[in-house]
Amino acid sequence: xxxxxxxxxxxxxxxQNNARLSNKxxxxxxxxxxxxxxxxxxxxxxxxxxxxxxxxxxxxxxxLGLQALIGVQLRLHVGEAFGSIGNHLxxxxxxxxxxxxxxxxxxxxxxxxxDTEHLRVLTIQSFTSRPEVARIETxxxxxxxxxxxxxxxxxxxxxxxxxxxxxxxxxxxxxGSRAKR
Length: 181
Fold this sequence. Notes:
- This protein has helices at 6-17, 23-30, 34-46, 79-91, 116-128, and strands at residues 66-74, 95-100, 107-113, 133-141.
- It is an alpha+beta fold.
- Among the domains are: 6-46, Orthogonal Bundle (Arc Repressor Mutant, subunit A); 59-141, Lrp/AsnC effector binding domain/regulation of amino acid metabolism (RAM) domain (Alpha-Beta Plaits, 2-Layer Sandwich).
- A four-stranded antiparallel sheet has the order 2-3-1-4, with helices on one face.
- A hairpin with a 6-residue loop joins strand 2 and strand 3 (107-113).
- Helix 2 (23-30) crosses helix 3.
- Mean pLDDT is 86; it is low at 161-181.
């Protein structure tokens, strides 16, 4: 995969904000000729940087007014259990996303349901009845916003797009210390 430059990052940001932009509109936003813009977009697609274009749907319009996050803890931490339950969770029609985690929770599953009865039946039939599952914890989602991935420009040192997003918990640089070169 080629390193991303400033223009690639501008293209990615624009497409995350509106994937329905025409190539002409996208080219104008990022300051390229349409042919050059299309070449870059196709390269980003071919390299797997752009993985898909999706419509974001309103779950309520589909009769799915309840969202929940279900934390799953497995009985045994062996590869077969992870693969088996992971495949099962991804196959559920109610599943929005599945995260495999480190820590006390092994999987976090975002689901959509019609109502609390639908959620109750789902948790019993598709989660707690599975032999791999030791316990689950369900939390209701009151609001959900997906903002996309950060596509910040690289910093001057080339440390990457997240270097400018230094964590407030990160240890401050010590005075008088110098990095080894």
